[in-house]
Write a structure and sequence with these properties.
The structure is a single chain. The protein has a domain of 95 residues: Alpha-Beta Plaits (2-Layer Sandwich). The longest helix has 21 residues. It contains 6 helices and 5 strands, in the order αβαββαββααα. The protein is elongated, with a radius of gyration of 33 Å. The strands form 2 sheets. A 3-stranded antiparallel sheet has the order 2-3-5. It binds iron/sulfur cluster (2 copies). The site of one iron/sulfur cluster has 13 residues, from helix 2.
Length: 187
């Protein structure tokens, strides 16, 4: 008998909670028709950024992002031309092994690479996750960004900025061992 009463109480309690939410707006999102607005600093797909006026890639092929990437997801091929400047031939990113750490964006001094707020890139084919330069640029075309000022190189420590001091053997004080040798000679 007691268990039946308990069951009725729990049922009424549950129905009350359900009733409270009946008139409220549904929290469920009808994905993919509806999407949550992602926070500006969320880390989604890595994209390449283009100049807002000319539309050309901001990338100067300095390769800092490739060196900063902990998973070796970035591959860059940029041989030097006759003018000794690097020509960007290949910029490839393997989204499948990217861990979205943001270190590439952090390393770039030219506002050329960014983790956009976009996040839909699932595919049935693993090879489709390797994105070339043109795809990275196209996906990044509508990504807003602010050109960051170039980072200044850290000042050299004083010991490196001054030329090494040479010791004048004439002016140098005599060492203890040479004094001992002198004393031995006098004896
Ligand atoms: S760090 Fe920036 S400019 Fe340098 S290669 Fe990477 S994306 Fe290009
Ligand atoms: S977000 Fe991290 S793992 Fe992905 S490409 Fe950039 S540095 Fe590499």
């Amino acid at each position: 008998m007691l268990s039946i009463v308990k069951g009725i109480v729990e049922l009424v309690r549950g129905m009350t909670i359900t009733g409270k939410h009946l008139g409220k707006h549904a929290v469920t999102l009808q994905y993919p028709e509806e999407k949550w607005p992602m926070p500006e600093r969320s880390r989604g797909i890595v994209v390449l950024l283009s100049d807002k006026e000319t539309g050309a890639l901001n990338c100067t092929a300095c390769m800092l992002c490739m060196r900063a990437c902990p998973t070796a997801a970035i591959t860059i091929d940029a041989p030097r031309g006759e003018d000794k400047k690097r020509q960007l031939k290949v910029f490839q990113l393997d989204v499948g092994i990217c861990c979205f750490c943001g270190l590439c964006e952090e390393a770039c001094n030219f506002s050329a690479i960014k983790l956009a707020t976009k996040y839909e890139f699932s595919t049935e084919n693993k090879e489709d996750l390797v994105w070339d330069m043109h795809k990275l640029q196209e996906v990044g075309r509508d990504v807003p960004y602010e050109a960051r000022p170039k980072k200044k190189p850290a000042p050299k420590p004083e010991s490196q900025s001054q030329p090494p001091q040479t010791v004048n053997p004439v002016a140098a004080p005599e060492s203890e061992s040479s004094e001992d040798e002198k004393k031995e000679g006098e004896a």
